Amino acid sequence: MVASAHPEPPELSAANGNALLEMRGISKSFPGVQALRGVDLELKAGEVLAVLGENGAGKSTLIKMLGGAHRPDSGTIYVAGEVVHFHQPQHAQRCGISIIYQEFNLVPGLSARENIFLGREKSRYGLVRAEEEARRARALFARLGVDIDPEAPCRSLSVAQQQLVEIAKALSLDARILVLDEPSATLTPPEVENLFVVLRELRTRGLGLIYISHRLEEIFQLADRVMVLRDGQSVGTRRINEVNRAQLIEMMVGRKLDQEFPRRSAEIGEDRLVVKNLCRRKKVRNVSFAIRRGEVVGLTGLVGAGRTEVARCLFGADRSDSGTVELDGQLIPLGDPRAAIRARIALLTEDRKGQGLVLGHTVRENFGLPNLGRLSRYGVVNEEVERNALQGYIRSLRIRVPNTEQLARNLSGGNQQKVVLAKWLQRECEVVIFDEPTRGIDVGAKFEVYQLINELAGQGKAILMISSDLPEVLGMSDRVLVMRAGRIAGEIRDVPNARQEDIMHLAVG
């Protein structure tokens, strides 16, 4: 079957023995890059298939072809045993395929109802039949087991609720194949568990789910089978009960990692960064702590607990109402990022694309932004000096980039993170604040980021690591601070013997 402008959706049923979805021999290349090479994928009714791989392994290209955004150079896609050719996303939707990307396709100013039926509005005499749409939206939310006001603007909904609106939209399109790309990246643990309840229910109703995530613990909770891509090729597909965590990591990175969190032998010294009674409205309330020379302090808590707000206050991106910050005994003016930079404090934001990098500029230009005074003379940037300085970090940080003139937007998440780190290391910063340093990057790149954090601590720098990933917090921190409702709810000193439950107990009260 060739997808026409108005294709009839195939009968998506496993009754005839066919899989819901088959992709056979899929290859795709872009200028200078072979993104996929002969990849096979099979998805059955009532199954969750996890797709894993490092950044750049080809996962995004694969699902974009399934969604009709790209067309394969070679290979065949079957839906319910029939050949399909998707020329645009609408063709894939008509064949029962919906993709929920990490960055939602919702219009913030429109209501949940309007987003669900956008472009497919029910009308009579030119007027939208809003009541009928609202009834259908409520039925969809009831099917998902959630209570969301159909008339609530999407900008007022939580990330978890917006995700459920996306799923409701997919069900309204009669989707039988649902692809979720990093669905848990910005969710709290309770929200993730609620999402899993919804996905398991959809699985029992015969939907086929493709689940893409860098969080391996989720794969073992949810998936029936797991497929691993590496360098554009399929390494293998296994039933989830036939593999363990270490084997999956080895399949993804092509080598064994002796431990997920590298050991560190930094010598912890005297206090370097001292924060006293930091306040900002109701977001940060009398926060006090210290970080010592060579120490990695983990800062965690539920989303909205005030972690990122603390980081922004320390860096001066947000103005504090009161409190003091000292580095090596010297007071740092609050609310002034330039003063923080001069004091050698660096902030690697959780939104590296929106706040850490200028995506339309080259890697070299991004590297030079906070270092123009050092890399210029008489107001003119010396590009050769800038390029040579960057090359040193490309080697030491193992940044995978074809050349210094590559646009930042074209790098993988892990390499973007390293570019942000390189520009701050050039400033010779002594305090480095990592806000969600490994969000959205693969397990191999995570290990390299962890090694870099350890190296910085080994140089005597003070490290504040903010993370929602509890295994990461426990695996990397010398001490853990847990926030709740803008305050430090507790501190864990005996980290090697701590459990995730200990952190959650402090986080929820």
Task: Write a concise synopsis of the structure shown.
By secondary structure, this protein is an alpha/beta fold.
Can you walk me through this structure?
This protein is α/β, with parallel strands linked by helices and 509 residues long. It folds into three domains: 1-96 and 175-256, Rossmann fold (3-Layer(aba) Sandwich); 108-173, no CATH class; 271-508, Rossmann fold, CATH 3.40.50. The chain is built from 18 helices and 24 strands. It has a six-stranded mixed beta sheet with strand order 6-9-10-3-11-12, with helices on both faces. It has a six-stranded mixed beta sheet with strand order 18-21-22-15-23-24, with helices on both faces. Strands 2-1-4-5 form a four-stranded antiparallel beta sheet, with helices on one face. Helix 4 crosses helix 5 (159-172). It is globular. Residues 1-17 have low confidence and may be disordered.
Summed up, the helix count is 18
CATH topology of the largest domain: Rossmann fold
Strand content: 25-35%
For the record, the CATH class of the largest domain is Alpha Beta
Largest sheet: 6 strands, mixed
Q: Which assembly state applies to the chains in this document? A: single chain
List the topology elements.
Elements: E1 21-30, E2 33-43, E3 48-52, H1 59-66, E4 74-79, E5 82-84, H2 89-94, E6 97-100, H3 112-116, E7 123-124, E8 127-128, H4 130-144, H5 159-172, E9 177-181, H6 189-204, E10 208-212, H7 216-222, E11 225-230, E12 233-239, H8 245-253, E13 271-280, E14 284-292, E15 296-301, H9 307-315, E16 322-327, E17 330-331, H10 337-342, E18 345-348, H11 352-356, H12 363-368, H13 372-375, E19 376-377, E20 380-381, H14 383-396, H15 413-425, E21 431-435, H16 443-458, E22 462-466, H17 470-476, E23 479-484, E24 487-492, H18 500-508
Parallel strand pairs: 3-10, 3-11, 6-9, 9-10, 15-22, 15-23, 18-21, 21-22
Antiparallel strand pairs: 1-2, 1-4, 4-5, 7-8, 11-12, 13-14, 13-16, 16-17, 19-20, 23-24
